[in-house]
Amino acid sequence: MAEAHQAVAFQFTITPEGIDLQLSYQALNQIYLSGVRSWKKRVSRMRNSLIKGVFPASPSSWLFVAIGILATMYMQSDPSMGLISKIQHLHVSLSSQGQTMLSALVFSTLLWLSLILALRFCLKLLLSYHHWMFEQHGRVSNTTKVWVSLVRLFSSRKPLLYSYQTSLPHLPVPAISDTLSRYLESVRPLLTDPEFKRMTNLAGQFESNLGNRLQRYLKLKALWATNYVSDWWEEYIYLRSRGPIMVNSNYYGMDFLYVTPTPVQAARAGNTITALLLYRRKVNREELKPKPWRTPCCFNSFEKHRNTHRTLFFFSYDSFHHFRHGYFNSSWIFFSKVCFFNNKRALSCLCPPPPPPRVPWAQIRKQYFSSGVNKRSLDAIERAAFFVTLDDEEQGMKGDDPAGNLDRYAKSLLHGKCYDRWFDKSFSIVIYKNGKSGLNAEHSWADAPTVAHLWEYTLATDAFQLGYTEDGHCKGEVERSLPHPQRLSWEIPSEVQAQASSSLAVAQALADDVDCHVFPFREFGKGRIKKCRISPDAFIQISLQLAYFRDRGGFCLTYEASMTRLFREGRTETVRSCSNESCAFIRALEGRETEDQCRRLFRKASEKHQNLYRMAMTGAGIDRHLFCLYVVSKYLGVESAFLKEVLSEPWRLSTSQTPVQQMELFDLKNHPDFISLGGGFGPVADDGYGVSYIIVGEDMINFHVSSKHSCKETDSHRFGAQISRALQDIMTLLSADAKTTSSSSSSSSSSSSSSSSSSKDKKLL
């Protein structure tokens, strides 16, 4: 092969005349540059490790401590209280002056390290303060003001991406009585009186008997582990799943809604890959500056996005691994190390195996892909940075049926043709024929905010930094000396082909059953909601409750994902959005109660939802605690009727908000067409809905609704219509209140002006 020949740095042949040595200076130069890059990376990693290791101090602070100690000793003072003289006796081979100098430096280093540990402990105490989340907006207590000043003081050194990791507090284990009390409160509106009494008795028996024993083991783990939830959540919720992860676990992200930067597929792929590699370099160098919260949070999952693959195993759970390089799929032909030229060089059939039940494919992997050419090709894919598919379809909001095309776009990203995505990769990029793009992400390594951060950077860099020429090709000079793509070879026996056909049938049935509906809600956005002095998330969640009640005629257990990244290695917690307060409001609204009564109940429900969200973010959630207690019970080999029933309850309404503008790389006000569609996921329950929403700018909310065609009681388009109706009905209710308040304020102002004018007239008379 030509590329293999070019890779040889030197050749020699033995002839009768002697040894003929041929050197390739180009290859030697590449070897030299590769070594330089490698050493630069090592030096950068060492530098970052040093900076993080001494944070919140700086490496240069050691010099100030050492100079201070030496200066005090020069003034005939001993700041060490005799420790320096004791250290001197350990250096008998040095002169007296040398012993004094070295002992002072050793003491300075020990003092410096002690100060770092003390500062880190103080910072951890500061970051454990979460009372600021429960204060009313605009009413900040003096304690919180002092806390903010101290946190800013620690943050003044422009920390690296992972500088705060070791200073973040550990996730606390809630008191079992508090968790059970909150759980019973959350299910009260869903149960009849006899059912609730039975559940209360089960909870009481659990607390008085088995619960406290399990709690002690869990507290022991919390003392030992960095996070008492994350490792079990990753293993038991994701990696131990034996069913297809397509639709059931993976989720997707979409392109801009109105804009396609280029119609040239290869050019869009080239810029997207470049942007992703630039993002990877920033993560490696810890140069990313995410949108700051009021307090630092955990970015542990950011380092897992690169070269990560979920590996099938025959036993009860999978694992994922980190590797290093790039992989490509075009029309089901596999290539590695793909390069794009401005002249749109075409990438001219084995396809990825469909997402099967995982045990049969684990057996096939062990038997047919553990050696030889298959292992080498599979390793090339699994060690790749990410997976790219050049799809032969066109997607986006186009044509005579833009709404229907958005639905097909979402389904394509969620499952594709079932055999043209590599669902086990950390994420797979999809570039469509018309230049539209998207991604499919595996769930075990990270949650949606991490992937949304990556995708937001990629889209912004592609559109605003890299850009395209007028004819849609990549900018820059053509480099024709780059190596050609390397096609991967496979040996596929008939047994594997038969299993692939069987798995494809299962996957196709699963994909066909998914009912996706994506729609932008343009009537209003968070700007108008905030004018009503309501949290946008609470407004949307209560609207979803109202929509579900109208769609199904009742309430259900509702899952809303909340982040716990205020804690080290924190991931998510569940907010049980269906509360007594939200149900009371919906019953009043549907029961035609007075508008004042409905508004009062709505504000009460909104405040309750905000409090539930804050509790979840600060480690006082319900479901992760109960989940971990259940895992402990399984390890101990004991059964709990209460835990078994709690964890088997179906989430018929699963919701999630996708964050946007995490990095503020461009202003939506100046570029309103560059609105992202966000992303979505499949339904969690067979008879339920999955709803993802993204609050875009001030005037739009994008919704992604999913359900299953096989369930006659669900319909994604019908539920989407109910969501739109619920949003508008609640806004109408609150707007009437705002108008009344405005008119009363205006009339009181007019009355005040009139009385003032009258009093002036009296004085004049």
Automatic annotation (TrEMBL):
Chief place where the protein resides: membrane
Membrane topology: Multi-pass membrane protein
Domain Choline/carnitine acyltransferase residue range list: 171-310, 358-724
InterPro entries: Carn_acyl_trans, CAT-like_dom_sf, Cho/carn_acyl_trans, Cho/carn_acyl_trans_2, CPT_N
Molecular function via GO: carnitine O-palmitoyltransferase activity
Chain segments carrying region Disordered: 740-765
One Pfam family it belongs to: Carn_acyltransf
Record has Lipid metabolism as a keyword: yes
Subcellular location: Membrane
Carnitine O-palmitoyltransferase N-terminal domain location: 1-47
Listed PROSITE patterns: ACYLTRANSF_C_1 (PS00439), ACYLTRANSF_C_2 (PS00440)
Record: active site: 443
Bias-annotated ranges (Low complexity): 742-758
GO biological process terms, semicolon-separated: carnitine metabolic process; fatty acid beta-oxidation
Alphabetic keyword roster: Acyltransferase, Fatty acid metabolism, Lipid metabolism, Membrane, Transferase, Transmembrane, Transmembrane helix
Protein family according to the UniProt entry: Belongs to the carnitine/choline acetyltransferase family.
UniProt-recorded name of the protein: Carnitine O-palmitoyltransferase 1, liver isoform-like
